Amino acid sequence: MAAPATSTQANGVLNGQNTAEMVPSPHIPAGPSEESVDGTSDLLMDGARFGDLEDVTNALELGINPNATINAGTTALHMASANGHLDIVEKLVDAGGDVNSKNESGNTPLHWACLNGQTHVAEFLLRHGASISSLNR
């Protein structure tokens, strides 16, 4: 029996998505959301990570906190920023997403956008109050 596929396996396909164009989110182990038992915040997180604006919109309309976190304090804004999904970053910020939220390593959405070369997202975050002096560990 073959080992289960990870985000870097499965011949470049994960959940029907072409992973060749997606930047893996750093230090995001698979697992349930800290704030969700029924999977509703997973809708927000997965939508943000994979660029699905409809899922993000639906999750926010269901009342999911835009600052909900998963493993190690990562928010949907971290995910969308790392992967360059500006439309989702805008939606999350408009919904009250914290541009200066830090995960357990002290990384902000701006850190993840810069780490992955997402300058258009970094510029947006800076225009919306992201701190350029925030340090990680």
Brief description of this entry?
The chain has 137 residues and is mainly alpha-helical.
What is the element layout, followed by pairings?
Elements: E1 13-14, E2 17-18, H1 40-50, H2 53-61, E3 69-70, E4 74-75, H3 76-82, H4 86-94, H5 109-115, H6 119-127
Antiparallel strand pairs: 1-2, 3-4
Helix pairs in contact: 1-2, 1-3, 3-4, 3-5, 5-6
The assembly state of the depicted protein chains is single chain
**Between the first and last Cα atoms, what is the distance in angstroms?**
40 Å
* Helix-strand pattern: EEHHEEHHHH
At CATH's second level, what is the architecture of one domain? Alpha Horseshoe
Lateral strand order in the biggest sheet: 1-2
Query: CATH H level of one domain: which superfamily?
Result: Ankyrin repeat-containing domain
- Summarize the biggest pleated sheet: 2 strands, antiparallel
Let me know the average pLDDT. Answer: 80
Uncertain segments are: 1-37
Radius of gyration: 14 Å
Give the structural class: mainly alpha
What share of the residues lie within helices? 25-40%
The general outline is globular
Please write the CATH class name of one domain. Mainly Alpha
CATH fold annotation of one domain: Serine Threonine Protein Phosphatase 5, Tetratricopeptide repeat
How many H/I helical runs? Answer: 6
Report the portion of residues in β strands. Answer: 5-15%
Question: In total, how many beta strands?
Answer: 4
